[in-house]
């Protein structure tokens, strides 16, 4: 049996807006001849996705004839809002609402941004808008990133389903797929990675990726600086975004010509 055949449960398909999760969605659609009423697709917008990501999500839905539910975090009950391509936040509004409500910043240890803006947001939609009690959640984790799969069962109403992992899919497979499609995510694909994918300046991204954002999109990087000022803290201990912005500004282009100068270490992003 195809690893993309829907399990016999209600199913929520998580679409992060990246190439991997879009590939997963396409394979599920192909294997099942579309989606039955017991399955739906959700995209949780944090407001820090690049415009190209929002356009890609919209185009996938249009080309594949698929309704995609666009969700955003809200601080008041039911703590989510249904939006669309036109009304979706583009200046980090949901993320800022969360920071102001918590009055401190997420970090590597306390990643409540992923939990609230994405995981719980989708869960609340399924519970309150659809009336679901339990379901499977399709997550785009590939076979070459098995370390991201939780070792213990989820203590949630939902249990994860990892069709890409079970299908043995790697980032090379995903890249090859999109090279043969009539459309693609209009963000750079560097060895299977999309530096500007998901939250543009995410604190989990490498120093090199965050520095590139500061140079190429300083207006977008400024949002991260402003959030640290509002919360009077930092996303990364002793590494203020304002310091990185100043460093990039004063050092010039030579900084990016030295391949090993900036740290390339990347702990991964919140979704596939």
Question: Could you describe the 3D structure shown?
Answer:
With 272 residues, this protein is an alpha/beta fold. It has a domain at 11-179: HUPs (Rossmann fold). The chain has ten helices and six strands; from the N terminus they run E-H-E-H-E-E-H-H-E-E-H-H-H-H-H-H. Strands 4-3-2-1-5-6 form a six-stranded mixed sheet. Strand 1 (11-14), helix 1 and strand 2 (39-44) form a beta-alpha-beta unit. Helix 7 packs across helix 8 (218-231) and helix 7 (207-216) packs across helix 9. The radius of gyration is 19 Å and the shape is globular.
Features:
272 residues; alpha/beta; Rossmann fold; six-stranded mixed β-sheet
**Architecture (CATH level 2) name of the domain at 11-179:** 3-Layer(aba) Sandwich
**Main β-sheet, spatial strand arrangement:** 4-3-2-1-5-6
Radius of gyration: 19 Å
Judged by helices, strands and strand pairing, the structural class is alpha/beta
Top CATH class of the domain at 11-179: Alpha Beta
């Amino acid at each position: 049996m195809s690893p993309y055949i829907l399990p016999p449960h209600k199913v929520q398909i998580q679409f992060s807006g990246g190439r991997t999760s879009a590939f997963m969605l396409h394979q599920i659609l192909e294997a099942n001849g579309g989606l039955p009423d017991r399955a739906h697709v959700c995209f949780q917008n944090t407001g820090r996705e690049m415009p190209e990501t929002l356009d890609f999500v919209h185009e996938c839905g249009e080309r594949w004839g698929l309704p995609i539910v666009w969700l955003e975090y809200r601080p008041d009950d039911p703590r989510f809002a249904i939006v669309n391509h036109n009304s979706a936040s583009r200046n980090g509004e949901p993320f800022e609402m969360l920071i102001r409500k918590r009055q401190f910043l997420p970090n590597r240890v306390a990643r409540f941004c992923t939990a609230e803006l994405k995981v719980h947001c989708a869960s609340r939609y399924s519970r309150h808008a659809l009336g679901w009690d339990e379901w499977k959640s399709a997550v785009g984790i590939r076979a070459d990133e098995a370390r991201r799969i939780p070792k213990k069962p989820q203590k949630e109403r939902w249990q994860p389903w990892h069709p890409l992992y079970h299908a043995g899919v790697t980032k090379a497979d995903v890249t090859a797929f999109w090279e043969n499609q009539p459309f693609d995510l209009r963000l750079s694909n560097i060895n299977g990675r999309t530096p500007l994918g998901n939250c543009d300046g995410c604190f989990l991204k490498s120093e090199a990726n965050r520095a590139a954002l500061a140079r190429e999109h300083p207006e977008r990087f400024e949002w991260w600086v402003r959030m640290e000022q509002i919360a009077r803290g930092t996303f990364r201990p002793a590494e203020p975004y304002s310091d990185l912005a100043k460093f990039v500004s004063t050092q010039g282009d030579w900084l990016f010509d030295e391949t090993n100068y900036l740290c390339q270490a990347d702990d991964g992003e919140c979704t596939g």
